[in-house]
């Protein structure tokens, strides 16, 4: 079926200009057939009201929780949430039960994602069997089954020698290694960064636990020639290390989360698990260094690290509650409002960091909206504001520290392969109706 989307404004990622155009898509080929004015009639017409058309967003760090933790999220609910957030492609982390460490596990994720049909899902498989940090998985077989990267996310690979071997094997297999950098002998039972930990009298998870492992793995990536991707960079020292490594020509890409860009541990007023995330919210100095690194390109992209947990788990006492926040349904509006709206970066640059760059870094098709390309697109309503209300999430996870924040830029239409995967009405215009 062919669909014609009228009434939108296309963002030009090269110069940031907006042009009123129609877009003709076809869900049989999954392609954009034409972009322009006076396009031919289609089987279905979708009428927008001035929303801005962007290439579908891409999130390379999502926890879908299936198999094993379906009470937190399922592939169906997580991908539906992704579509609501404007995402047409996501990569999911393998810290499920069992962990995704075999070709069958990878095939299972792909099958369930196809059945759900809300967005494209790219499995990331374990670096080590069972994420135990002892023996490597079969990288070539995992790649053949469809894994696009390797990660033991949730835990760092503690043993440097094993990590060197992993990077050498990954370089041979042609797979990026996405690291959760955390030296557990330094983080221990820590929950918050130094400031909040001392203020509230709870165990500290120090910046060095992250930065020391990033330093190690940058050197090992240089040695092996592997593509190292650094997950959720949160410290000033880590930003400096990545900047240094890039200048030396190390094959490294890095992501930053919306919460590490927008929140520091100053917001933590009580021992509240809603702020418990790994790596922890850091000092304001770290936050500003991450923002600077993001603006200058040292940190290539935003990834949400969408990590849903049940309300029951998040109501536990701080030390018992799990680490993790949801983010996939709010990342675009939050960063649009608080970075673009605040004059820190252009809309086009934000879109590149949420679509074009992740596509390039992980070798995915997409990240641009053009005739002949995939009909993966999102229309965002930049003129209306909503108040973030977790009860309205499609995700099963409600654990967000952004409850009650106002933001504009919510998606009203998401198309994946030319099919409508999300559609809502515009919200309340800024300043009321
Ligand atoms: N980020 C988190 O705090 N939690 C993640 C694991 C991870 O990304 O390290 C989770 O799986 O819940
Ligand atoms: Zn992690
Ligand atoms: Zn994660």
From TrEMBL:
CDD domains for the chain: DHOase_IIa (cd01317)
Binding site for Zn(2+) 2: 153, 180, 232
Keyword rRNA processing on entry: no
EC number(s) reported in the record: 3.5.2.3
Pfam families: DHOase (PF12890)
Keyword Metal-binding: yes
Organism domain of life: Bacteria
GO biological processes: 'de novo' UMP biosynthetic process; purine nucleobase catabolic process
The protein, known as: Dihydroorotase
Species of provenance: Alicyclobacillus macrosporangiidus
């Amino acid at each position: 079926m062919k669909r014609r989307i009228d009434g939108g404004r296309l963002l030009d990622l090269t110069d940031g200009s907006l042009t009123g155009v129609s877009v003709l898509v076809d869900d049989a080929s999954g392609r954009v057939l034409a972009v322009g004015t006076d396009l031919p009639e289609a089987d279905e017409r979708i009428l927008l009201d001035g929303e801005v058309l962007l290439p579908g967003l891409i999130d390379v760090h999502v926890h879908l929780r299936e198999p094993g933790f379906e009470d937190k999220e399922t592939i169906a609910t997580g991908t539906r949430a992704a579509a609501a957030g404007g995402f047409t492609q996501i990569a999911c982390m393998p810290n499920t039960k069992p962990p995704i460490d075999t070709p069958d596990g990878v095939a299972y994720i792909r099958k369930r994602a196809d059945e759900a049909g809300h967005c494209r899902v790219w499995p990331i498989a374990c670096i080590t069997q069972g994420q135990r940090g002892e023996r490597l998985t079969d990288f070539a077989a995992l790649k053949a089954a469809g894994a696009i990267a390797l990660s033991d996310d949730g835990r760092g690979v503690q043993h440097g020698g094993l990590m060197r071997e992993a990077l050498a094997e990954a370089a041979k297999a042609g797979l990026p290694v996405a690291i959760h950098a955390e030296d557990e002998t330094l983080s221990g039972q820590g929950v918050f960064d130094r400031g909040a930990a001392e203020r509230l009298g709870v165990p500290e998870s120090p910046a060095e636990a992250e930065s020391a492992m990033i330093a190690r793995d940058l050197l090992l990536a240089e040695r092996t020639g592997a593509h190292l991707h650094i997950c959720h960079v949160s410290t000033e020292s880590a930003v400096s290390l990545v900047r240094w490594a890039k200048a030396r020509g190390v094959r490294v890409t890095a992501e930053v989360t919306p919460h590490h860009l927008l929140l520091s541990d100053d917001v933590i007023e009580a021992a509240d698990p809603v702020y418990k995330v790994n790596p922890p919210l850091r000092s304001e100095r770290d936050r500003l260094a991450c923002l600077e690194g993001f603006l200058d390109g040292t940190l290539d992209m935003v990834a949400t690290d969408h990590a849903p947990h049940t309300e029951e788990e998040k109501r536990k006492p701080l030390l018992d509650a799990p680490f993790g926040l949801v983010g996939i349904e709010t990342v675009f509006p939050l960063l649009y409002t608080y970075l673009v709206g605040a004059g820190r970066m252009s809309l086009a640059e934000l879109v590149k960091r949420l679509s074009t760059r992740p596509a390039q870094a992980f070798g995915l098709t997409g990240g641009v909206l053009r005739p002949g390309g995939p009909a993966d697109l999102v229309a965002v309503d930049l003129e209306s504001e909503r108040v973030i209300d977790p009860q309205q999430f499609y995700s099963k996870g409600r654990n967000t520290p952004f409850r009650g924040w106002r933001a504009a830029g919510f998606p009203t239409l998401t198309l994946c392969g030319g099919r409508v995967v999300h559609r809502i009405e515009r919200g309340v215009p800024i300043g009321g109706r």
